[in-house]
Amino acid sequence: MIEILVAVFVLAVGLLGLASIQMISLKNINNTQFHTLATTYAYDMGERIRSNRGGLSGYNNLLSTVADPGCTTCTPALMAQLDGFEWNQLIQSAVIDGGLPEGQGTVTKIGTLYNITITWKEQQRTNSGGEVGDASFTLSIQI
Asked: In terms of CB atoms within 10 Å, which of 59, 67, 104, 128 comes out highest?
């Protein structure tokens, strides 16, 4: 009888360990998905900047609060604003629609270097267990 109790206890501990590994794997899959999306969105903005050389100054200090210019035939400067608006709509959309949790995108210019930064919230492992913290990805391109 004691042998059966020991066997059931060992099995229960093993199954709890397996469940723990599964939870950690799911968290890591989600975090990897967010990193992949951030990378894709950063490269997307890089291509938008490269394709609008006439409106390069419009991308300087492009923040997540940029408004829709509402133009159908845009000037290069308005195209930069429209790019920023559409880009941030992608980043800030619901996670199920391909967005990032509390995602924010910014573009800053230093000389001819454009720093495209995307920040979002993700689960992080700490000494006390886990918490939701900030994660970011920065792409630098030179035009």
From this structure: 59
